[in-house]
Amino acid sequence: MDAGSIPAVSTKLYIKDYMKTFYDIEEQDRAISILQKAYLNDSIAQAYLFDGISGIGKSLVAKVFIKLINCKNPTPTLNPCNKCSNCIKIEKNSFIDLIHIKPNSTKEIIKIDKIRQIEEKIAYKAYNGKYKVILIEDAEQMNISSSNALLKTLEEPPPNTVFILTASKISKLPDTILSRCQKILFSPLSKEVIYAKLKLEYNSLEDNNLKIIASISQGSMTIAKEIIENNILNLRKEFIEIILLQNNTKLANLIKYIKKIIKEFKGENFYFLAFFLEILKSIIRDALIFNSKLSKNLLLNFDYINVIEKISTNDSNILIQEGEKISNLQNQILTNVNIETAFENYFISFLKRGIV
Ligand SMILES: [Zn+2]
Description:
This protein is 54% helix and 7% strand. It is of the alpha/beta class.
């Protein structure tokens, strides 16, 4: 078979897989039902803010909702038909009444010229469908002038215009924008759903590793994939074994290791440092669960039960305080305050506190 010919059956499968409805989106029933009700009651808000960590389905829900409100033949279950010309154009990103702004990376700033384009384009009535939709993904990546420009449009949007902003860090958005949007909260995914999705996508990986990744991914498919693609499971093993497993760890060894990971992950990859702290925090959380006699199924780092048990002998208040110290350090890393010294100082004092 030459490369250009695709058997009919796989095309069919492709379409089935690609053209999603709300039924295909897992664990966001609450968000979906708010949107479906608004559609049903003809009370669609002028602006929505989809709030939740990345990799849990915000973009997908936005896409299905945009199809639904513009669909020529929506289903009785309040889903888009996925067959009409509007649904197909939205799927292919060629729908003239949809303005879609999405930064290419977590660092790209949404600049004012992009936001100004919105103003020009929404001056005209919807051409194809009922609604003009402006979808701005990762809206927290707008700078101040972009936010101000957007605010102007949000203050007096033309009729039948719907704004959908998605954000994983809504605290970075100005209050003036937040107050003009209806906030819709998206929840992190369960370990079970992440595991099932990973199993489909990475079936060559060892099953137990997939379970661990699902467990430590904080409910985000984006984080789960980052763990796999950056081989973080190995980094985690090394980190736990050096920081938490070596009895009587010599301070010099610890400092050497901390210096090594700082050197490796500063600059571009600085967020990995925050990830190491997340591992430590999750182990402390596990130790608290262990202490509270809650179900062992709730443990995230179930492959290091011996470490968890050892740390759980500390007083709960001490563990809670430790968790707070780690959160503070994570904030410092994100604000780029002398990362190296802060990181090193924390681990030296962590060891001195004798928690492990
Ligand atoms: Zn349709």
